[in-house]
Specification:
Helices cover 43% and strands 18% of the residues. By secondary structure, it is α/β, with parallel strands linked by helices. The chain folds into three domains: 2-53, no CATH class; 61-210, Heat Shock Protein 90 (2-Layer Sandwich), CATH 3.30.565; 218-348, 3-Layer(aba) Sandwich (Rossmann fold). The strands form three sheets. A five-stranded mixed β-sheet has the order 2-4-5-7-6, covered by helices on one side. A five-stranded parallel β-sheet has the order 10-9-11-12-13, sandwiched between helices. Mean pLDDT is 79; it is low at 164-168, 213-222 and 348-357.
Amino acid sequence: MRQPIHAISLFTACLRDGRLGPDEVRMVDNIDRSLQSVSRLFKSLLDISTLDSGKVRPRFEPVAIGDIVEDVRRQNSEAAQLAGTTLRCRPCRAAVHTDRALFTTMLQNIVNNAIKYAPGRPILIGCRRQRDGRLAVQVYDRGPGIPPEHQARIFDEFYQVRQRGDRDLEGVGLGLPIVRRLGEILDVEVALRSVPGLGTCVTLGNLPAVRGPVLDGEWRRLDPPAAVRGLRVLLIEDDEAVLSATASLLRRWGCEVQAEPGIPASIAAVDLLVTDFDLGNGVTGAECIAAVRRLAGHEVPVVVISGHDEARVREELGAPDMPILSKPVRPAELRSVVVAKSMLAKGTAGRGGSLAP
């Protein structure tokens, strides 16, 4: 199921960049919104399944919390606009010790819930210091609030607050259960305060603050096409539809792409390898990476895309810092990683040079 959702998402992003009329743009917007609904539902089911397996292992690192908050705000800005909601965040320069991906998922689920249940009302994401010097991230909304009889159960799986005659809402009631499960893994305290008629506040607390400099998100503010223009990408993907869609998207961003369905016999100069993990005929991403680096004669930086559990893929690759994107990959997510790699290229090898490992 990951493959077709992944491919449709990439093709839709390519179509959006075409020369479309107003009616066609609206149709693409509708396709994209429906696809994102399916993708979120599918991701929730996958997340809860992965958490049930007990194989989720956090990778703690210093994280600039403001970067995560801004990412979540940006990713939800379109959904908020469609719901008539004002989504704001207060700047925060603090850094914490956590797992960036897992904590982002927690905050993303909470903001999704706020947009869904408080349409047309303002939402604010903010941070505050706690008494013990730790940090808390809070999401406030001015929605209808949650009746007291429901508050004890909203973190139960498949439970939704519904009243007779309520409008249909997307989802199956897994967002907050996933937040609770991830909170246990990350030792993040999840608290909810809600007053019917006034709104709801969800707090993610007990985040250990980090002192000292943390890599910031300067590259995120760059224009992506300008940042990646001329980046030489070797793309390897055994699914023809996904290969075509990904190559088209990278080229629209200004990359020079060599697209291959398997490990090539020869390669042109390459700055970045983007490869699927399962390449068919028993070939994996690990073998692909080793072969490409031998052909290139240097440690080509890599982005791996996979439909498997990230922990399993990372263990097989033996590379704790290698970016691994889980299918279905959002185009914005892929673009963020490619932009980061392009900035590394410009910062280490000069314009047009090869990337450092």
